[in-house]
Design goal:
Blueprint: H1 3-9, H2 23-34, E1 45-50, H3 53-62, E2 64-66, H4 72-75, E3 85-87, E4 94-101, H5 116-133, E5 137-141, H6 146-153, E6 159-168, H7 187-190
Antiparallel strand pairs: 1-4, 2-3, 4-6, 5-6
Bound molecules: flavin mononucleotide.
The site of flavin mononucleotide (FMN) has 13 residues, from strand 5.
Length: 199
Amino acid sequence: MDFMEISKKRVTVRKFSQKPVEDEKIEKILEAGRWSPTAVNLQPQRIMVLNTPESLDKVRQFCSFGYDQKYVDLAKECDDKEKGKVNFYYGAPLVLFVAYDKDECWTHPQSGKSSGATDATIVATHMMLEAASLDLGSVWISYFDEEKARELLELPESWQSVCMLYIGYPADDFEPNAKMSGHRKPLTETCFWNEAPKN
Ligand SMILES: Cc1cc2nc3c(=O)[nH]c(=O)nc-3n(C[C@H](O)[C@H](O)[C@H](O)COP(=O)(O)O)c2cc1C
C-alpha cells in the first residue's frame, strides 16, 4: 500500500473485536515508532504495551468519567453508559500508553520549550499508521485521567504522559463516525502558500 492509501484508509475505530493482536504485529508497530525522528535523536519516548486483562482493567479505570452530553457522539460506543458513566475504553485488546521522559528531552535554547510532547506525538503517529498498514484499527486517546494513570501504572516520576493508542481488529459491526471520519477541511482553509492570511 502506498502512503497516501494508508493515510486515507486509517479511520478512528471505537469498537473492537476481542481477537488479540498478534505479537509479530505488535513488534512491527513498536518498530515503526522506534524509527521516528526525535529532536537531536534523543528518543525520549517511553511506550507501555498494555495487553493483559489486569493492565486493560487499569485503562478502563482511568478512562471512566461521569456522563457528559458534550461527548454524546462518542458515548454511543462506550460500554458503561447505562451506569451514568462514559467509559472511553472501547474494548481494545491492545493499548499503547505513550509518554516521554522529561529528563531525556531536547530543550529549545530560546523558548525553553521541551521537545518531549512533539517527539512522543510523532512516535504515536508512526505507530498508528503502521497499525493501519497491518489492517488493524486504532483510536488516539487524549482524554484520560493522567494522575490516575500515573498511579495505577506506577509510572516513574520523570515520565510525562502524552496519549494512548487503542489498537485491535475492528468489531464486525463497527462503523466509522459519520460526522467526523472522512471529513476534512479543504487545503485552502489550512495551507497557505508563501503568505499568511490577513486578519
Ligand atoms: C490529538 C487527538 C486526540 C484525540 N482524542 C480522542 C479521545 O480522547 N477519545 C476519542 O474517542 N477520540 C479521540 N481522538 C480521535 C479523533 O476524534 C478523530 O481522529 C477525529 O474525529 C477524526 O476522525 P478519523 O480519525 O476517523 O479521521 C483524538 C484524535 C487526536 C488526533
